[in-house]
Amino acid sequence: MNLRAPKGTDDILPPASRRWRVLLRSWDDWSERFGYDLVQIPVFEMTEVFARGVGESTEVVQKQMYTFTDKGGRSLTLRPEGTAGVVRAFIEAGGAGELKASYAGPMFRYERPQAGRRRQFYQVGIEYLGTDSPDADAEVVEMGYRYLADIGVPGLVVRLNSLGDQECRPHYLETLREWLRERIEQLCEDSRAALPVNPLRVLDCKVCQPIVADAPSPVDHLCDPCASHFETVKGRLDSIGVPFELDRRLVRGLDYYTRTAFEYIGTELDAAQNAVGGGGRYDGLAEALGGPSIPGVGLALGIDRIVLSTEDTADLPAVLDVYVVVADAELRGAALDLLSTLRRAGLRADTSPEQRSVKAQFRAADRNGARAALIVGDEWGEGKVAVKDLRNGTQLTMHSEEVAAWLSSR
Fold first, then answer.
1. Cβ distance 8 to 118 under 8 Å?
2. What pairs with residue 45 in β-bridges?
3. Which is it for strands 320-326 and 349-351: parallel, antiparallel or unpaired?
4. Which is it for strands 99-108 and 37-38: parallel, antiparallel or unpaired?
C-alpha cells in the first residue's frame, strides 16, 4: 500500500513552493514596516480557547474543529484560526500595554476539500492589542491591503462594515431576530438553529443569501460612539488612499467581532475563491477568555487562496543568483571553494552534487531557476571564470574575485 497525504492536505514542492517563499518573505517585510513583531503560538490549544473565543454557535466550533483527548484526559483542539491563541498568550503574559503581533502557520478545519478550501491551510495574520483607537483599525486594514496589492491579487477590493458593540448590538439583534422569525419557513435548517443563539450567523449563511438580502443591517443601527468610530475609520482609509466598499451584509464567520469588520476580495477571481482574507475588531474576546478587558483588532489572510489568485499574474521568481558549472573535473575542489565564497558574500548559489556533463549542469541551472551560470574551466589557470546570463544569453569572462560583486550588482 502506498501512503498518501491525508485528504484535504497538500505537499508543496518546488517549483510551486517558490511562490510560497516569495509570499511569506513579502509578508515579513510588510508586517515589519508596520511595526508588528513575530509571535509564535501552539498549533493546539485547550478546546475551551476556541469554544469560548470563536463562539459556540459558529460553524467552526460546531462542525469543523479537530478536537481530541490527550493522554492526560485534556480536551485539545488543533487551531482553526490564530486570533484566539494570540489573545490567550497575551493574557497569560500579563496583558499589559499594547502588542502588535504578526504570525504565520498552518490552521486546521474539517472542511469539504476543494480549490482554495483545505483541511490544513496556511494563514498569516496580525493582531493589534491594547487600543480601541479607530486609527488602529485603519492601520490593520491598510497593512493587509498594501501587502495584497504588492503581491498582485487581481481586482483587489476591501469590503467594510460595522457590527456595533455591546451597547447597540443587542437592540439590533432583536430587530434582526424578529425580521427573520417572520421568514423562518424560508430559512435553511442551520439558520433556524442559529436564529435563537446568534442571528448574525443567518446573514453569513450562503444558502440563505437571497432571503436575507433586505434584512436589517447592523451599520444602520449603530449607537453614536460606534457610528463615530466607523466614520473615523472610513475617513482615515480615504486619507491614506485605501479604496473600500460598504457591505451592509458583511458579518464575518466568527462570534468575537465588534464594530469594524472587513474582507479582501479579488473581484477578478471565481466567486468560490475570491475572498483572500479579512478581519475586524474584537474588543470582548479577552474577557470571553477569562482575561481583563483588552481591546483588539486584527486580520488573517489565506496563503493557499492567495497562491491561487496570483498564479496567473506573476512569474515564478529566480531561486538562485548563480549556478556553478564545473567544466573540468580536476577543478571541482576549486569550484566548491568559489561556491562557498559566493554564498558567504550573500548570494544564492549552488552546483551539482557530483560531476556531470556541462550540458547536464546547464539543464540543472535552468531547472533550479538560476539567473546566471558561472563556468569553472579553461580560464581558471589565469584566475578567471566565464559567467553566462541565463536570461539573455550574454557571456563574459572575469577574475574570480570579481564575480560576487558583479552578480550582486545585477
1. yes
2. 77
3. parallel
4. parallel
Burial of 166 (0-12, 13-18, 19+ CB in 10 A): exposed
pLDDT tens-place string over residues 35-94 = 999 999 999 999 999 999 888 778 888 889 999 999 999 999 999 999 999 999 999 999
Secondary structure (H, E, C), 141-167: HHHHHHHHHHHCCCCEEEEEEECCCCC
Q: Cis bond leading into 15, ω under 30°?
A: yes
Cα angle at 297 between 296 and 301, to 5 degrees? Answer: 140
Q: What is the pLDDT of residues 357-408, one digit of tens each?
A: 999 999 999 988 899 999 999 999 999 999 999 989 999 999 989 989 988 8
117 DSSP assignment? B
Q: DSSP letter at 233?
A: H
DSSP string over 21-36: HHHHHHHHHHHHHTTP
Q: Alpha carbon of 29 to those of 22, 307, 402: distances in Å?
A: 11, 18, 30
The rounded distance, in Å, linking the Cα atoms of 126 and 97 is 17
CA triple 404-28-131, angle to 5 deg? 150
- Look at residues 367, 373, 397 and name the one whose alpha carbon lies nearest to residue 18: 367
Q: How far apart are CA 301 and CA 241, in angstroms?
A: 21
CA distance 376 to 361: 12
Three-class DSSP labels, 68-97: EECCCCCEEEECCCCHHHHHHHHHHCCCCC
Alpha-carbon span 142 to 241, nearest angstrom: 9
Residue with cell 488543533: 78
Q: Per the structure block, which three cell numbers stand in for 229? A: 468610530
**CA 299 remoteness from chain centre:** 9
Residue 206's alpha-carbon distances to 17, 112, 191, 202, 351, in angstroms, are 32, 15, 10, 9, 52
DSSP string, 163-193: ---TTTHHHHHHHHHHHHHTTGGGS-HHHHH
Q: How many helices (DSSP H) and strands (DSSP E) are in the chain?
A: 14, 16
Measure the CA–CA gap between 177 and 363, rounded to whole angstroms: 65
CA distances from 168 to 99, 165, 226, 233, 276 (A): 28, 6, 8, 18, 30
Buried b (16+ CB within 10 A) or exposed e, 91-107: beeebeeebbbbbbbeb
